[in-house]
Amino acid sequence: MKKREVRWERMFPDELEDALEECPIVYLPYGLCEPHGPQNALGMDALRAHSASCLAAHEHGGIVAPGSYWHVHEQGIEGAWAHPLIGEARPWLTAIPVWMFLKNMFYHIRATDALGFHGAIIFSGHAGPFIDDVGKLLEIVQPNIAMRLDVLFGVGAIKTSFEDGKSSGGHGGRGETSLLWATDPDCVDISRAPAPDAPGPHFAMGGLVRESSRRTGELMIKDIVEGLGERARQLLDDYAKLQPKHKPMTFDQVEEIWDQEIRPLIKNFKAMKDLQSGQEPPPENSRWYANWHVKYQG
């Protein structure tokens, strides 16, 4: 039996109305086209977030918004991270400044709240120093809307499910590779991984890649989907208790809140910091130097 469609952009109006009536939860998946080793497709972060959200919507109800592949990178801490791990290879990034990303997210929240959703789960497969900044954005936005908000970052996994007790291998390592292999198997090709003794850097590839496992990824995805379902139920419970009134926010109101409450904070956001402990700035001849130090002029 064919599964019901949950992808907003592929649904008909009557399907969307029925799905909203049945479970007024929306999933907002975010990610980035970014190096995760030569064995993984560039869209890993958004692909995983979108696929896991679709699985959760099938299992627990809700609608999955179109994924956003434009995210934060290059500047500050992430630019300093990229220099040694990606090097001078063409990175194929879909990167935008943190303030643009946050404002886009604000407008996405405004649009879904205006449609009458009771809860939104923001799932960013890409993680980084901006995590705290997103939290601050949601803290400011939440009192102005009826829809309840929740957010998670990275793989979203409760446990790695690898039985050997070793790590997940970090960024682009066996954990992320296994997850993508489970959700989007045509986007992983282990044969492209370099030999263990090949000199790097290897396009931001983490460790233990040749020990990746699609089956282990499936177990991890199962945990993630269950976690998303729990988050959705909590949002619906919170909405039912509060019974907030829906009054769609206007574009002008978004701009007013942005200018008065968010813009003044951006210069102090974590994603605006040049370095974190232990990092070195990229040298001036590095491709990562140009956007590494950014003074927000907003």
Could you explain the architecture of this structure?
The protein has helices at residues 13-22, 44-60, 76-86, 98-114, 131-141, 174-183, 214-242, 251-262, and strands spanning 25-30, 63-64, 71-72, 95-96, 119-124, 148-153. By secondary structure, the chain is an alpha/beta fold. The protein has one domain (24-272): 3-Layer(aba) Sandwich (Rossmann fold). Helix 5 links the parallel strand 5 and strand 6. The mean pLDDT is 96.
Mean pLDDT over all positions: 96
Tell me the helix content: 25-40%
Q: What's the CATH topology label?
A: Rossmann fold
Overall structural class, as computed from helix and strand content, comes to alpha/beta
- Spell out the CATH superfamily: Creatininase
Strand content: 5-15%
Low-pLDDT stretches: none
Task: State the assembly state of the protein chains.
Answer: single chain
Please give the structural blueprint:
Elements: H1 13-22, E1 25-30, H2 44-60, E2 63-64, E3 71-72, H3 76-86, E4 95-96, H4 98-114, E5 119-124, H5 131-141, E6 148-153, H6 174-183, H7 214-242, H8 251-262
Parallel strand pairs: 1-2, 1-5, 3-4, 5-6
Helix pairs in contact: 2-6, 2-7, 6-7
Keywords:
298 residues, alpha/beta, Rossmann fold, 4-stranded parallel sheet, two-stranded parallel sheet, 6 strands, 8% strand
Give a quick rundown of the structure.
It is built from eight helices and six strands. It has helices at residues 13-22, 44-60, 76-86, 98-114, 131-141, 174-183, 214-242, 251-262, and strands at residues 25-30, 63-64, 71-72, 95-96, 119-124, 148-153.
